[in-house]
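G., the chain you wanted modeled:
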Amino acid sequence: MKNPMLKMLKSQAQGFAYLLLNPPQLKHLIIRETRYRQRHQSKRRWVEWQKYNSARAAAALQECSAEALMRPFNVARKKTISDMVTRLGNGLNVLDVGGGDGAIGEHIWKMGNYVTSIDLPTVATQAHGCQGLLAVAGDAEQLSFASNTFDLVLASEIVEHLWNPHNFLDEAYRILKADGHLIISTPEGIEGMRYDSHKHYFTVESLKQMLGAKFTVREVKRLKTAGTPTPTIIVLFHKSTITKISNSTRNTTQVQ
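Predicted structure as tokens:
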């Protein structure tokens, strides 16, 4: 079928058929475009949308939690992050931002580290059953921790959800110790915007530009697509010893 209009109509028809055969997804779209139709207009509305989405994802995860943990992508991500942490040593004070159900944070604790997990109030409770974790509710863009507290900040699949990732990166820099590290895991490229809970997309280069002089790249890993529309990048950053970031540097960096 070469006619572009016919191709578009065929694609739309397939989409409508999928929704009719999947009532939960149809319900989700209706709620999104009615209750949360103004989600992009303010941070408060965006956070409310994130709370709804995270609760929906948690309910789906509970139905197949064991299966989800063993999916190749989740296994590979957990191993890659664990290997990075291992090379940093143990006895680390770790903040797991957007820690979700605590699966990765609990594993890092079992490696001999101290782990605090922070997430939205509707999500943080999921980690209460994990061993060794201090699970708290909070805002990733306004972290309620003292400066120079943590050896490592882990942000796994979270920066793409934030209203303003710059605020989180500034906070990560503030709460890390002088020789601290930051691990960011996120979908790579614009294909990550297929998820309606994502507000931004990133590449290694865009992350480097955003972080500017605050951090230097130590290691980059890419996880191949496995049931996801785009590869995932996992980047290990080291905190730079600088005293002040100029506003001109920050203002020239754009988040997609």
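Residues 43-63 form the longest helix (21 residues).

Shout if anything looks off.
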